[in-house]
DNA sequence: ATAAATGTGTCAATTATTGTTACATTAAAT
DNA sequence: ATTTAATGTAACAATAATTGACACATTTAT
């Protein structure tokens, strides 16, 4: 099953941003995303923890942006939503000691994965939620 | 289940490169990768189709590089191994017509995904199999 | 108290990847 | 020609990560 958490998080952030100056509920977000409130809240709780959203419990509660859209980079959202998961996965096969390539493959792949992450994150860091909202 | 095809393809290419001037069998590769020959052959057949490997059937057959290591970029391997799959997946939720964000989210996400792909591919295009072999 | 919201744990459902088996095809060697 | 040893591939099973669903605790305004 493919991972769409970054996409879902982007849409959550954009929808909250679109409802400027009001609190939105996880039920509203779940309707807009054709999913269920529990899943939304799990995503939202990561974004809250990353200080991108504020959430308020109890009657009249809901969710709002924690910062202005131009102060929220897409890399902030990426980091919060994927939680350590990398774009490219290094396999976890055991090392075959008789194979010189197998013996060094982990470090080769880890270097490569780190490079891709750094490259992508610097790309995402240049774009903000505000940039995306201009497309609405 | 996580996708490790790019990592596996890198290791296949490196292992074939390491056995310079000889043909390697899918069984040898399967041992080095702690997997089975059929899975290896599925990966190899994509790399053959992309003109990165040559394969020879029949007794005495096997696999060799189709080009010199410095003529094979990591982007070539990436393109061949992932086959249209993107680093970031756009979700496939239905559009909710009453939500302005939902109505434009697909184009916003597709733009973003394209940007990430382009950025990453240009990063990978600068590195070659030869660069990786220096780390063995 | 009640109502309405988030927070979270658990388990089921879905689905993409990986593994397995079987067999067709090919080509060298005897 | 037959045998042997290799790739190619189709079909199906097993595994595991993501998503969905449900229950219930917690919080807060009315």
State the CATH topology of chain A. Arc Repressor Mutant, subunit A
Query: What profile does the largest beta sheet of chain A have?
Result: 2 strands, antiparallel
CATH homolog superfamily of chain A: Winged helix-like DNA-binding domain superfamily/Winged helix DNA-binding domain
Chain-averaged pLDDT of chain A: 96
Order of neighbouring strands in the sheet with most strands of chain A: 1-2
Which descriptor suits the 3D outline of chain A?
A: elongated
In the predicted model, the low-confidence regions of chain A spanning at least 5 consecutive residues are none
**What is the number of helices of chain A?**
6
Oligomer: homodimer
The topology string of helices and strands of chain A comes to HHHEEHHH
Question: How many structural domains does the protein architecture of chain A include?
Answer: 1
Which pair has the most extensive contact?
A-B, 47 and 47 residues
What structural class do the secondary elements of chain A suggest? mainly alpha
Architecture per CATH nomenclature, i.e. the level-2 architecture of chain A: Orthogonal Bundle
- How many beta-strand elements of chain A? 2
CATH class of chain A: Mainly Alpha
Terminal-residue CA separation of chain A: 29 Å
What does this structure look like?
The structure is a homodimer of 136-residue chains. The first copy, chain A, has 136 residues and is mainly alpha-helical. The first copy, chain A, has 6 helices and 2 strands; from the N terminus they run αααββααα. In chain A, strand 1 and strand 2 (62-65) form a beta hairpin. The two termini of chain A are 29 Å apart. The mean pLDDT of chain A is 96. Chain A binds a DNA duplex (30 and 30 nucleotides) through helix 3.
